[in-house]
Amino acid sequence: MKVLLVGANGQIGQKLTELLGKSDKHSVRAMVRKPEQAQNLEKLGAETVKADLEGSVEELAQAAKGCDAIVFTAGSGGSTGHDKTLLIDLDGAAKMVEAAQQAGIDRFVMVSALQAHNRENWNEQLKPYYAAKHYADKILEQSGLTYTIVRPGGLVDEPGTGRIQAGRDLERGTIPREDVARTVYAVLDEKQAFNRGFDLLSGDSAIEEVLSNL
What we know:
Layout: E1 2-6, H1 11-22, E2 27-32, H2 38-43, E3 47-50, H3 57-64, E4 69-72, H4 82-103, E5 107-111, H5 127-141, E6 146-152, E7 154-156, E8 163-167, E9 174-176, H6 177-187, E10 196-202, E11 205-206, H7 207-212
Helix pairs in contact: 1-6, 3-4, 4-5
InterPro entries: NAD(P)-bd_dom, NAD(P)-bd_dom_sf
Organism: Fictibacillus aquaticus
Protein name: Sugar epimerase
């Protein structure tokens, strides 16, 4: 499976690029906004393509052409204003869904945020971010694509353990970025995860075991 990775230059994206680059069953095309981002990702085993989430759907569809799946790990980041949250986390995600449809790509994996589906549990100070994730996820769910929505908890830079918990309504907690990347890699062809969304935290069970029992 050839995967277009959107947000490849982010911390989760780079870890996922490395996993896909080493894979014997998948390959990766990393979407970059700046040419200088390409070299590091190519060292990790990626083909790269230049495109911008603030550009046109046609540009994004062209970047995705020839791929079998799209993984969206992009985010505006904590240092930007609500305008970029709207343009990247919501509209950028929505445009990638449209691009997938235009390019004839059925498989789409979205990295969202813990409890984004449940307004009652949104962090008061991050409500614009959660609203963006909430509606981006809804657009994907209603798109007709074969989707998986992964909603990780607080992201930490500790080494991954390969052990997680996944469910519809998990309490707040954390998970290493490495384990988020491993989980996204594993859901790509895990049919139990098709057309499902789930919260994701560190846990006691192996990733493959958890996903096969969703």
